[in-house]
Amino acid sequence: MPAEFPARVEIVVEIPRGSRNKYEFDEKAGVFRLDRVLSSAVFYNFEYGFIEGTRADDGDHTDALLLIDEPTFTGCRVWARPIGVLDMRDEKGNDFKILCVAEGDPHQAHVERLEQVRPHRLVEIEHFFLTYKLLEDKTVEINGWRDTERALEILRHDRAAWEREAAGTA
Fold first, then answer.
1. What is the dihedral of CA 3, 59, 143, 39, to 10 degrees?
2. How far apart are CA 28 and CA 151, in angstroms?
């Protein structure tokens, strides 16, 4: 784990931008599995994955949305910088999505805060999450975007949960 955490995180990409396939990492087996194909006429308009070394309140790794100009691939590991968080709720409860920019993408190098992302890009991401489960008869509640400091707070909380789990005190 880099010493710079949570200002620098390692994202494991589960779903490349442009895909309708929802892949999930199976921690026990150490493989990526196809969870489902999205039933709505939408696709992931960002890279989607998780942040290594974290455990969110839902029992999974902390979710990450990655802004990068070119799609990567399932299993790709990307060093990234958190810039904000999408505050959501789904059928399982709070569901935070940490928005990050790829360190290796020069087109994202200037982005350090949520306000530097094109506003329409943020609306597109919200729209994706509002619609991607509609035909599965599941609802999602969007509570809005939060700043970098809130994203870092969530990451610190989720890293502490991961460390407690690793130590056997969770």
1. 120
2. 27
pLDDT digits (tens, 9 = 90+) for 16-44: 999 999 999 999 999 999 999 998 889 99
**What single-letter amino acid sits at 66?**
L
Summarize pLDDT for 13-23 with one digit per residue, the tens.
999 999 999 99
What element of type H or E holds 23? strand 21-26
CB 95 within 8 A of CB 88: yes
> pTM above 0.85?
yes
Query: Exposed e or buried b for every residue in 134-169, given b needs 16+ CB within 10 A?
Result: eeeeeebeeeebbebebbbebbebbbebbeeeeeee
- Write down all domains in the chain, each with its CATH number in brackets: 9-164 (3.90.80.10)
Q: What is the rounded distance in angstroms from the CA atom of residue 84 to the CA atom of residue 72?
A: 21
Angle, alpha carbons 37-61-52 (nearest 5°): 110
Nearest to 81 by CA among 115, 43, 114, 127: 114
Print the SS3 string covering 54-66.
CCCCCCCCEEEEE
Q: CA 130 to CA 27: how far, in whole Å?
A: 27
